[in-house]
Amino acid sequence: MFPGRLRIFCDERLTAALPAECTREWVGLASDALAAAACGAAVAEAERGGRVLVVVRDIDGGMFAEAATLAGRLRLDNLHVVLAADEPALLVRFGRDASDLPWGQTSTTTVSLTPTGVGHGSAVDSYRGAPPVHLAALGLGGVPPWPIDAAAAPRAAAHAALAWLSEREPRLLAVHSDAVWSRIPDSLAKLFALAHLCSEGRRVAWLVPDGTRMLGWLDALSDIGARGLGLKLLVASAALPSIDHLSAIAGWWVTEPADASEVGAVLAQTLDTEDSMIIALPRAAAQAHRGAPWSPGSGRWIATGDAITLACRASSLASAISARELLDAAGIAAGVYQCTSLVPVPGHDLATAAARGPLLVVDVDDASRGIARAIAGELGGDRRARFDAIGAAPGSELTAADIAQAARALIARS
Known about the structure:
Layout: E1 6-10, E2 23-25, H1 31-46, E3 51-56, H2 64-73, E4 79-83, E5 89-95, E6 104-111, E7 122-124, H3 154-166, E8 172-174, H4 188-197, E9 203-207, H5 218-226, E10 232-236, H6 243-247, E11 252-255, H7 260-270, E12 276-281, E13 300-303, E14 308-312, H8 317-329, E15 334-338, E16 341-343, H9 347-356, E17 359-362, H10 371-378, H11 381-384, E18 387-390, H12 400-413
Helix pairs in contact: 1-2, 1-4, 3-7, 8-12
């Protein structure tokens, strides 16, 4: 029934029904997420003449409707789903006559799927159908080769960079501008399918639409990061969950560049790696950089000063710089350190700054949920006596005067 190459995605509870020689992918994933990830495999296999089989107990609820919509829009007639709840099982091919029709089931056939008790097939957590991707257009040294408009907002800078690369790199899938993928509704099923494509010789970057809230994506991101899939998600800084939430998901780097030049440096580095990466894009640029290369886990010294260090992220950089100017006018030399990397925070640089003098963390919202807690975890007990954090109370805005006042208070008690 399935000539040629066959890929298998099987619910963990049904593996006894598989022949011992079968290899199944995305082990341990829930049935609906398996169907979604299998869409990515089916896209790759459509070019090779292969087929993809998903073995599940049911197709009710969850992501199955999203996966079926995805399969229909992509016209994946090589994707089949076996419903193993009944005997004999039902073989279903998801299909649509047109993308605007409700999803349904076509080409239905009954097949035998009986537990054999002999083996459960072999398992692979992450499938690699191709070697790691290297985008030759990126060049060497982490310096972006595309032209950069230094005055552009971070999101516009990212869009322009990915457009430039897409024209030169057929293996780069810029989801937001792709003729097919950009028309597919944004969903968790789409997220899983794109993540799987990262293992098929594609570099996938998705400039997620403004307004998307990522809190509901955390479980999916954990599944993706645990498998080491090099998906690049570019999201509005305002859409990020708290740093506490992001730190708890395995396998992901999270970074927040401050301006167009730093966006270029981050993209030039991350697009040439197999790392799972979330790039947060502030609404407005705090222009402070001029294209120096960036490395994961690092930050940047914006200004130096011996009296106190103001540590911030890109979203609070403009406020920190303004506070430094107020302190300088009062004769207080304050340094400003921007944590470009949010997960993990640049622990070594921050610990060094705290050893030298007081360290005040300037957060964009409630400091108890932001980078302040992560930074505190990097500091020894003796250094925490000279550490404090300030963030905006709910419904209020943090001003430069607030930061300067907190800095003077910390210096006074240190």
